Amino acid sequence: MPGFFDALSYEFMRNAVLAGLLAAVLCGIVGPFVVVKRLAFLSDGLSHAAFGGMGVCFFLGLDPLLGAMAVALLCALGLGLVDTETIRSYDALIGVFWAVGLAVGIVFIYKTPGYAPNLMTYLFGNILLVSRHDIGVLLGLAVSVFLILALFWKGIVAVAFDEVFARVQGAPVRVLMTLLLTMIALSVVILIQVVGIILVVALLTIPPLIGLMLLKDLRAVLALSTGIGVAITLGGLGLSYAYDLPSGPAIIILGALLLAAVYAGRKLRGGALRSLPALRRE
Amino acid sequence: MADQALVNQTLIAARHVTFGYGSETVVEDVSLEIRPRDFLAIIGPNGGGKTTLVKILLGLLRPWSGEVVWNPPVRPGRMGYVPQFSTFDKGFPLRVADVVQMGRLDRRSLLRPYTKKDRLEVDRVLARLGLTGLAAEHVSEVSGGQLQRVLIARAVVSDPEILFLDEPTASIDAESRETLTGLLEELNRRIPVVVITHDVTGLAPLVRRIACVNRRLVCHEGNELDPHTLEEAYGGPVEMVTHGVAHRVLHRH
Questions:
Q1: Model confidence at B46, in pLDDT bands (50, 70, 90)?
Q2: Mean pLDDT, to the nearest integer, of A141-168?
Q3: Nearest-CA neighbor of A30 among A187, A211, A193, A215?
Q4: How far, in whole angstroms, is CA A170 from its chain's centroid?
Q5: Around Cβ B180, how many Cβ atoms within 10 Å?
Q6: Residues 6 or more apart in contact with residue A52 via CB below 8 angstroms
Q7: Fewer CB within 10 Å, N or C, chain A?
Q8: In whole angstroms, how far apart are CA B36 and each of A139, B70, B72, B168?
Q9: What pLDDT score does A236 carry?
Q10: Rounded distance, CA A27 to CA A194, Å?
Q11: Cβ contacts of B20 on chain A, cutoff 8 Å
């Protein structure tokens, strides 16, 4: 794909690649927690809720990225601090965030005077529109996520693995869960820029699913997922450039094909799908 | 004399504890004291509130009414717990040693990585439970009995001041059972042990007291039961309701 590398002389293409790399690192280090802790629905909910913030900010003439960040963080804090014993239906609560966010976003974008932005851009993302300013914000977010995980690694892993036992040991489970949700919220905001609201959940789950199928050590899974994230993001961008495809869907489809290939490869070799929690019900 | 004082001291005291889920009461007006070197077996019918009571004693559940008092050195965060069903997803990418290491999660130093001492303790406990060869195995690859031992290792690796086990003998093979009995005996020389079990006979040489929980609690000194106590605990004529259990619980029937 020599055309792709030539294209890197354009700033928008360099920004797209940088945004893609940041997104890939996040799918790699946050995605495995989303998969093993079964938080895919929650991540999807956060992403749709964030759309409400984007709509409002767009209406007010502010940076939509800011609105997405504010709403995603608020939802994460709300869900983390809510007492799950009193609010039984955590699931339904996420559903409410999801639908209300989407509705609010659409209403505000619809009511914004003048040129109406293409909804498709938000829903399916357009990595080629990421600006240099966006890159700065995204980098800040990515570093925050990385720092949270690095600092609280021991506690977050313990809570992600077994909340009850972490509580027995006197760990501040609710704080740690809220930190995990915050990491997911920040990642979602970054991923929205790359693949759009609707496809965020795919980027958070596909690379970790592949990593979990192949490896059994958490750190190794994070590393491999990051590598796979980089490969499919750059690959998808290349395909998008070469064949004039929408970039977000190209990335996801490439990831899905890779997932299918790895799955088939393991099946053919008789490998058990030992580490695929999302596909297992016990 | 000092020894006598130690025996009389109460480590955990539950007083008139009532708790339930939603609007349904699960344990009612339960009072129970746990003293140093206790070996308490908790028996009772399924759904009778055994696990709930243990979770209250662990400080995981806050009673609706009544109170639980922990006396040093026992306090929440310094108690070992082996749950009945593992509460985690076995697909989580962790090795046996990693899972045991989580027993060394120290809430006072959450920001510090696990230390060399933590790893040494993990190795020691793995060896004690005959799991050294499995240390690098993925948790989903070990058998039920081995997983049970892994959970016990995780519970004792932090040197807890008291150990709670929820049906530890339910799913384990003979070899694991022998290892378990030996370990519990050894631990009980230093700390109290509380075991939820349907199989008192298996642990009979160790058991010092039996608590029958069926919403309410009836405590029984010694390791034998008379049919009357059982009837009270199980809430009906034992022969009719839980004949099989009666046979296993009683020494002379």
A1: confident
A2: 91
A3: A187
A4: 30
A5: 23
A6: A67, A71, A100, A101, A102, A103, A104, A105, A108
A7: C
A8: 55, 12, 11, 21
A9: 92
A10: 12
A11: none
How many CB atoms neighbour CB A147 within 10 A?
Answer: 11
Q: What is the mean pLDDT of residues B103-117?
A: 83
Say which of A155, A165, A220 has its CB closest to residue B81.
A165
Position B224 scores a pLDDT of: 60
> Distance, in angstroms, between A30 CA and closest chain B CA?
14
Q: Decide if A174 touches B, using CB distance below 8 A.
A: no
What pLDDT is stored for residue A152 in this prediction?
Answer: 93
pLDDT at residue number A241: 87
ipTM: 0.80
Shortest Cα distance, chain B CAs vs residue A37, angstroms: 8
Q: Rounded CA gap, A247 and A236, in Å?
A: 6
Quote the pLDDT of residue B2.
45
Phi then psi for residue B220, to 5 deg, are: -140, 120
Q: Do B107 and A169 touch (CB under 8 A)?
A: yes
Q: Give the predicted TM-score (pTM) of the model.
A: 0.83
Contact check, Cβ <8 Å, A275/B93: yes
Q: Pick the closest to residue B166 from B6, B49, B19 (CA basis).
A: B49
Q: Are A189 and A68 in contact (CB under 8 A)?
A: yes
